[in-house]
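Let us practice reading a record.
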Amino acid sequence: MKSRKFRDIAFILHRYIGLAVGILIAFIGFTGSLLVFKPEIEQFLISRSSDRLRNFLHVSAFWIQCWFDMEY
């Protein structure tokens, strides 16, 4: 009877310790891959933000031109 209780406790500890270690290893792997691909990620984000800025400036210039055309 005691060995059954000990086995149940050991199984529960094994489950949660394994889960915690697994999450830690996944986090380490994810952050490591971010570090490895940092230049590519930065280039992607910069090109994407410059496209948004270019589109914003184009639309803003269009509306400013329309506003000036209406005034004069």
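A brief commentary: Residues 1-36 form one domain.
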